[in-house]
Every structure is written in structure tokens, then in C-alpha cells.
Amino acid sequence: MTTKNITAADLRSTIDDNDIVLLDFWAAWCGPCRAFAPVFEKASDANADIVFGKIDTEAEQELAAGFQIRSIPTLMAFRGGILVFSQPGALNEAQLDQVITAVRGLDMDEVRAEVARQQAAAEAKA
């Protein structure tokens, strides 16, 4: 599967309609972004069950701001609609494979329970 260009118009449906989504926030002028692109593309080809999306931070400035992107490339992983990984910096092939393996291995019942605990704690402070 090749990577998919993600825009504000299809971001929510992409995250909601797929079990695992990896998003690469990048820009054409960014050297590390260009170095990470073939690694991301190769992983996309090897993992057809995962949606690999690219968000051009220049074209989608509101998305970049909404996700508080401060450094690119930034990789985000969503599983079951929940953000489970976010890290700036270009990863090598082994590091990206490790992230994919970790995201696949998550116990999503446990993740949802932790999200609920965090939300309850935040509401209690408010």
C-alpha cells in the first residue's frame, strides 16, 4: 500500500475508519523529512493493513497547529481512534518497525481504561 496524502477534510474519517493509522507530518524543505520518506514508504508497502498518511505541514498549517507540531518530521500513531504514539525526528527502518510492533501489540481495553482514568482526573481538577 502506498502512503496517502491526508488533509483536514479526510483526517477524522481516516483515523476513525481504520484500526491503525500512522501519520507523518513533513514539509518539502525539510531534509530529515526527505530522509524519512523512503523509510515510511517501505513500511507502508510491508504493512498493508495499516494506513500510512502524510500531512504536508505547509499545505495543512491548521492541522499542524492543531496537533501542536513543533518539529518535523513528527510521527503519530493512532489505534482504534486513540493517539498512542507521537514523536518528532526521523526514524530508521528498525525504529519504525519497533513502533509498528508496539502499536500492534497494545491491549486496547487497557488503553481505553487509562484514557478514561485520565479524563476523570482532569474533570475532577476542573
TrEMBL record:
CDD domains: TRX_family. PANTHER family: GEO12009P1 (PTHR45663), THIOREDOXIN 2 (PTHR45663:SF40). Residues 1-105 form the Thioredoxin domain. Keywords: Disulfide bond, Electron transport, Redox-active center, Transport. Transmembrane segments: none annotated. Belongs to the thioredoxin family. The keyword Ligase does not apply. This is Thioredoxin. It comes from Microbacterium bandirmense.
